[in-house]
Amino acid sequence: WPDGTHLAGSDLVIGGVGATRLAARFGTPCQVLDEATVRNRAKAFLRALPEAEVVFAGKSLPCPEVYRWMASEGLSLDVSSAGELALARAAGFPGQRIVMHGNVKTGEDLKAALQHGVSRIVVDSFDEIAQLGALSRHGQEVMIRVTPGVDARTHAAITTGVEDQKFGFSLASGAALEAILRVVEQPSLRLTGLHCHIGSQVRHVASYEETVRRMVGLIASCGVRVEQLDLGGGFCTPYLAGESSFDLFGFAQRVRGTLNYECALHRVPVPKLLIEPGRSIVANAGVTLYRVCAVKRGVRTFVAVDGGMSDNPRPALYGAKYAVRLVGRGGARKPVTVVGRHCEAGDVLAEDVPLPADVHAGDLLAVPVTGAYHHALASNYNQVGRPPVVAVRDGVARQVVRRETEEDLLRRYV
Ligand code: LLP
């Protein structure tokens, strides 16, 4: 739950605003986002690694208002398309603090990045190096995405540091070294640094330490000055009670120590460190409110709500697990399966979660840890409008993304 979340009577208070009131005012489903929690997490990263550039992974919660919070906290921003860059520009995010990512950047993405002064573009293929080299006029700074061959031991769909997947230049095969030389050869490009991102929901600091060792080895062997080393994001966030949280200060200490040691060993200058947290900044700040629409009691009890895989595809995509809480009532609880409104049997939000035995239509449910990759992954499946994002702070609630209407949906059809 977001910092400071508490019960007042049986209502759930988030950012000083009751969930009951939020649901009445903004409707359901509704994605509530606690501003203080987001800002606290951003500050925690800056405190843990004051020497590093902390880059918010904008894909985790694409929203100009959230980007403004990050800018004001002193973070940089990672965008992975011209679209995310457009949101960053709408937020007035300074170009010198924007990094562009993506294993595919179209000509439009690259042109937008060049036109709007994105400070660093992380190249991910030889085709891209050639294309960017031809488009760039002013010594565009680039970083090279390297596949270090480190298994972060997380879900296969979000494991990105191993060989034989689509991201980056392989270190082991020599492609990364070759990419460094190609960039250095391009007069219109300037090599600023190396980048890697081994995955998301990474639990073990040792995975990052091993990554640092390999990346410094590459820096030492390439014979080119590398000013920046970007270790990506992926810091694990607990979704259920009892799951341990990522040891950020331990991470900072061990990664800093390994980096200094390896650089001394290889006699290379210590590069400036970059990290790119997304989920670990915004996930826990989010709570989704749903209204129960129907309850079916059979072998199992199915509690059907007014949202589902269109606002949260994560259970279907990654087998992600969520806790669910009924707002407004307590009582003896029984395990139920919370399902969505979409036309698929796989549209299940949470299995075997304890809810009051008398759960019925009209009840309000709250699902925590829904701030990251929820708004970002939401779809219009079954032409259900995407929910709003409502920011709460000091007892005040305001929409930072409004609910999608039928008019919005119809606008694209010819
Ligand atoms: N940097 C790069 C280059 C990335 O691709 C990502 C996430 C991050 C940083 C931030 O990772 P984080 O700190 O948020 O774990 N849709 C999936 C997650 C996909 C992650 C994509 N890349 C999910 O809902 O679990």
From TrEMBL:
Please give the HAMAP family that the UniProt record associates with this protein: LysA
From the record, what ranges are coiled-coil? none
Q: Which organism is it from?
A: Lentzea rhizosphaerae
Cofactor or coenzyme needed: pyridoxal 5'-phosphate
What's its top-level EC category?
A: lyase
Residues recorded with modification N6-(pyridoxal phosphate)lysine: 59
Report the CDD domains cross-referenced here: PLPDE_III_DapDC
Write out the similarity annotation.
Answer: Belongs to the Orn/Lys/Arg decarboxylase class-II family. LysA subfamily.
In which pathway is this protein known to take part?
Amino-acid biosynthesis; L-lysine biosynthesis via DAP pathway; L-lysine from DL-2,6-diaminopimelate: step 1/1
Name the residues that bind substrate: 279, 314, 318, 344, 373
- What is catalysed by this protein? meso-2,6-diaminopimelate + H(+) = L-lysine + CO2
How does this chain assemble?
A: Homodimer.
- Quote the protein name from its UniProt record: Diaminopimelate decarboxylase
Q: What does this protein do?
A: Specifically catalyzes the decarboxylation of meso-diaminopimelate (meso-DAP) to L-lysine.
Q: EC?
A: 4.1.1.20
In its UniProt record, a GO molecular function of this protein is: diaminopimelate decarboxylase activity
Which PANTHER family does the record match to this protein?
DIAMINOPIMELATE DECARBOXYLASE (PTHR43727), GROUP IV DECARBOXYLASE (PTHR43727:SF2)
* Record bears the keyword Amino-acid biosynthesis: yes
The protein's matches in InterPro entries, at most eight in alphabetical order, are given as: Ala_racemase/Decarboxylase_C, DAP_deCOOHase_LysA, De-COase2_N, Orn/DAP/Arg_de-COase, PLP-binding_barrel
Can you tell which superkingdom this protein's organism belongs to?
A: Bacteria
Q: Print the keywords alphabetically.
A: Amino-acid biosynthesis, Decarboxylase, Lyase, Lysine biosynthesis, Pyridoxal phosphate
Q: Does Protein biosynthesis show up as a keyword for this record?
A: no
Please list the residues that bind pyridoxal 5'-phosphate.
234, 276-279, 373
What gene is behind this protein? lysA
